[in-house]
Amino acid sequence: MNRPSCLLASALTAGMLLSTAACSTDGGDGGGSGRTDSPASPASASTVPASPVVEEPGAASPSPSPSVRTLTKAEAQTALITNSDLGSQWDESQGVAAWHDALLKSKVDEADFVTDKANAEQCQKLLDGLYSEDLLGKPQGASAVTGFDDSDNDAQMRYEVASYGKSSLDSQLKWLKTLPDICDQFTAVNGKGDRQTVQVVSTHLPDVGDARQGLQVTMSGELEGDPETLTLDFAAVRVGDSALSLTNGGLSGTEHQSTEQAVKAGASRLKDVLAGKSPAPTQG
Fold first, then answer.
1. What pTM value is reported for the model?
2. How far is it, in rounded angstroms, from Cα 283 to Cα 157?
């Protein structure tokens, strides 16, 4: 290696400065006049130049990687849908429906899963997520929630926008996709001993956002001695590292068209907010 000898030569005589500069260019920061426009060799490619790299004439500029946009609290609030996105029968929610605790706070009957206890755990995770309203996991960033009541069909919708992180969202969506197979049909028992037959199927969602998953969960049985059937849509759509999610339904069934309307309008609003735009007004 020449550097020590070059530095010694520099100390001994001023006449060797040119040689010293040449050695410095070979192993320094690349800022000397010895740099050419020739392609860098593998050995020199690891050295980051202190000055901007000058592109050769005619060379194509690389496309910049898109930056990750993380929602602020105000943006999450702006991305929420309103009842005008759904239809005239929807109003702001007046509180959580009684069936929320009476039915969703239930335990899986593991006798339905004699050969696979792991599946029982996944179905319990589904019920717990519906009850605690966090089937997509806990938000890693800002979040905002709203709710609506459907006076015509005695249904409720809970709608949330939050930042979770792309990898976390993709993992949760992948898990949700497995549930119609794992939890096709099972029995759940609430705190008062009421037994419900639970069925889980996939549902269609509009082709919006970067990824999406829809489920419909039906719980049929008795509630305090009376026959009842709860039908709930669950929908989630990822846009970047954020997502919208909703539950929609009640004891009189669910209007899946309202679920699709909410998903379509909500994905558009979230996309606009992440792009720094004001969401366009919509009308259900």
1. 0.75
2. 17
Among residues 215, 216, 276, which one has the least CA distance to residue 240?
Answer: 276
pLDDT tens digits for range 63-84: 333 345 679 999 999 999 999 9
Give the SS3 label for residue 156: strand
d(C-alpha 183, C-alpha 77), whole Å: 34
Sign of CA dihedral 10, 12, 18, 20: negative
Per-residue pLDDT tens digits for 233-280 = 999 999 999 999 999 999 999 999 999 999 999 999 999 999 999 987
Which residue in 228, 275, 266 sits closest to 249, CA to CA?
228
CB neighbours of residue 246 within 10 Å: 24
The answer to whether 50 and 29 are in contact (CB under 8 A) is: yes
Closest residue by Cα to residue 30 from 47, 16, 17: 47
